[in-house]
Amino acid sequence: MLTIQNYVRPQSLQEAWELNQKRSSRIAGGMLWMKMSKGNCGTLIDLSDLGLNTIVETEKEISIGAMVTLREIELHPSLQSYSWGAVQRALKNIVGVQFRNLATLGGSLWGRFGFSDVLTVFLAMDAYVELYKGGIIPLSEFAKMNYDRDILVRLIIKKQPCLMAYEDMRIASTDIPVLTCAISYIDGIFRATVGARPGRAMLFYDEKGILSEWITEESAEAFSRYLMEQVPTSGNIRGSSAYRSQLVKVLSRRALLQIKGGN
Amino acid sequence: MEVRMKLNGKNITGDVRPDSLLIDFLREKGCVSVKRGCETSNCGLCTVLMDGKPVLSCSLLTLRAAGHDIFTLEGLQEEASEFVGFIADQGADQCGFCNPGFVMNTIALLRENPDPTDDEIRAFLSGNLCRCSGYEGQLRGIRNYLSSRHG
Amino acid sequence: MDNRTYKTVGRTVRKKDAMQLLLGKPVYTHDIIPKGALVVKLLRSPHAHAMVASVNKKAASAVPGVAGIYTWEDAPGNRFAIAGQTYPEASPYDRLIIDRHIRFVGDVVAIVAAETEAAADKAIRLIKVNYELLDPVLDIHTAKDNPILVHPEEDWFPPCQVGGDPKRNLVACETDSHGDVDRIMEECDIVLEHTYHTRAFNQAMMETFRTYSELDRYGRLHLISSTQIVFHTRRILSRALGIPKSMIRVEKPRIGGGFGAKQTAVCDVYPAFVTMKTGRPAEIIYSRKESFDAGSPRHEMEIKVKLGADKDGRIRALDLYTLSNTGAYGEHGPTTVGLSGHKSIPMYTGSLEAYRFAYDVVYTNTVPAGAYRGYGATQGIFALESAVNELAEKLHMDPTVMREQNMVREGMVMPAYYGETANACALDRCLAHCKEMFHWDEKYPVRDMGNGKVRTAGVAMAMQGSCISGIDVGSATIKLNEDGGYNLLIGAADMGTGCDTILAQMLAENMDCSVDDVAVFGADTDASPYDSGSYASSTTYITGKAVEKACDDLKKKLCRIAADMLQVDPADVQFEGKYVRCLADDRKIPLGDIAYKTQVFSNEHAEATASHSSPVSPPPYMVGMVEIELDKETGHVEVLNVCAVVDCGIPINPALATIQTEGGLVQGIGHTLMENVTINKKGKIIEDNFLQYKLPTRLDMGHLKVEFEQSYEPTGPFGAKSIGEIVINTPAPALAHAIYRATGVWHRELPITPEKILMELLQKN
Fold this sequence. Notes:
A: 10 helices
């Protein structure tokens, strides 16, 4: 269990950022995973008072504050329709409603957890994160970055015309996944993301143009084989590297065929 | 640190350490219906309502609940009594240790969706583990309650 | 068959504690104890095998709030067993409260008592231990006759002779046979031989182990413990602590589940020791992790089945060898193993000409196993029922038809079941009923659903016992109250199963009153009549019969008192529920008047106590079927439908019997598909929390349908047998069967994970 010396609710992002520059400080997301960590936290920074708990939609983008809960995202109608249900599909199996009512987008993304459904699904979109100091950068870039002492403020999803599908494999329904896979077709570009490899989710493009003639049974099969070769996997208690690689192939093909079938 | 919140409709105050978890605070305040079944945010036994939404009190800092409206089963006896008899008629209470969390989440479900399908019930309650009942009797109980309301 | 109808028995009534439980009232150990008890925590070894060279507790002792730190030097030297079994126990006395010799990852090195949890945790972190590391014995195959000994100590003591030899890492061994197995095997057209492996599954009851202790107002040691075995716990504490039994009281409040885990006194001794040392109240609550690392899980078993049959599907000979892993201590080791053969082989009494059953139970440096619902039968039935399904598939026979021609039937003598006769056996009807309810003929064929998915089904039978024959004792005390109601005092432990309620139903039936007229109390060593405890499926069958006997005694007594009041001969009155009636002139004495009479100038009390034991343990029987959809591209198994038909004699309370069955089925599904227990190279359990050890959720078990076929067991109360354990036995073999149907691959090791299914399938193609 994490021990905490001091709890602060800063009134501005600047104040939060300053507090967070100390190595012993930590920013609280939903605290679901963090509370299990051992060790000591000097100052726990709670961003609850900063108005980061809203989803704002404009004609061009959907902006999700860092303190929005996974449950709020799951229930958000335009996120569902925009993602063809992929977002809901990605979130609905995360432990339970009570868990998702606490887990925050910021905590889920910041952790860049290897098992993250959240990172997998948003990484397949034309998505950006706003960092307090680092500014707005593509989520794909953020996904690769090392942990630093910046603050994730919000996620921005560009509302490009989009087709999308999400697939996952779990041993038990609400377990953390053995593998996650999202595929999108946005602005003429296919994106494939694979998570729970079990490392951080990674983004891949159709660099060989396998899908350039659109999705057929054959091209889906070929792309899924290509992806299987590209995605580095390894083993943990939920599955071996070889098994995960098989799943990369199967789940990506299925996701593609869903897109072909108009979800 | 000082904390103020509304617990089961009453304003209360307390003095807690920064790492105090809501479950421990609530039990300290006499709400012992709130149970701990794991240390990994997995079992749902500690479910309480915060501003009407079901949350895991084992994972929520007491200080974070400050200023919010918290309900435990102690404060929702009447609302629970409307349907728990139907669970009892199935014998699905069994050891009972998961019951408070299960009942709290069922209250949340029925407030949000007064007429859920079986699949919606299963999905909403999937975060509530039960090792005794095999779940089917809990479902039958809820189903019978819903039918009785239509009745 | 007995077709009597009853007023209360055989009908669903709510559990007596239902509304208290559902409304979250304070009824469990941690809810009801006074504030201010010392918090007891245990420093556990990170090593599987070691000697404690030295312990430095200086820094830890200085932590404010620490009341005591105890190591092996402080603990008494009496070896004891913590298995909840009737004395003399089959389990060896191989434990100390704290031993210098560390035998598994999680073994206790020090006990810490502190004013707060934070202080206790801090002290635990500050204790410095030097270990002399020893090589651990981790592989069950090399444990027997390994030069490394788990229990080299000279004072290892077996209260019963069960073939144990600690110098060989052996807790027990035996061979039992009937007929000439080798000759018949030779005559058989087909001999199958396969090995099956099951793991140390965890009961995972929602309330972890916990015990509170204090000195009561007489200075006696008083425990409030979440236990299935109050009387055994008293005896265990007496030996471990070296204090008289009369100085100990053990009671249980409501229990948050047990499933056998709490048939072992896993944590009771630690707070009791602290209370004896400090004189202060003390409480221990195991974390979920501790309940995995140092609980009392199922015995891991490897079972070799040799099955001889003829081409027509007649099963003629069975030869089973079980290798059981008791872990670091021998709790329940010598007894669980027996059920792997004796509660599987007899199911084929119908055709069997000979059998042999042999076993070894070995010590290893892993978590000590204990009792878990099914108690060895589950492991044996997975092996044997899988082998029988393999035979049927090999012969291209419908496995239900094959079972019909081999199964035990009513009236048969079962040589593999201690020569007992199946006096009540509806197994044949269970099979026919289940086939019809499940639509077996439609669901058994493999159906391609497209997108790599196929549907199909599997089947298994099961049996269990209804007590430990010739050993278990159940007792009941019944007291009449002034309003004509009764108090029922029992020593059996309702752990959520509803035994308090079904025993009240039996009392109500016998005394011709309402269940609401019965107040049940249990269990408390000071107040309850002796009961060996709630385990071995025995409470309905044994304690139920004790209730029946006590009712008979009480009726006679009430008649005697009433006759005295009426000034007639006791033979001239009759007990008629609300009153005793004089047959000659119809005068009636209400029960309340009888009760008042015993309170005024009386030499007789309106109270009766009776005990019951049984020389036989009539098996309940069951058939389970399961339909799955298997994804041949991912290996994922979705359970669609599970049907079960159970012969438990008569269900005393159909709703509770149904829930028992449904709960057992889902636990069985968990063990088969998702619950895994593995250890790393150092012997540490990897799946030691609910994040890694996955219990089935309500999305993982499909649709359950449970019905009953009644039989009438002449030795049971109202014809009842048991139900608590048998219900966990069918899912594993039935699922393994369905998975074979879908993939053409037999999986003989649990759990059968998606990865195993897919990778085997890929290898096969």
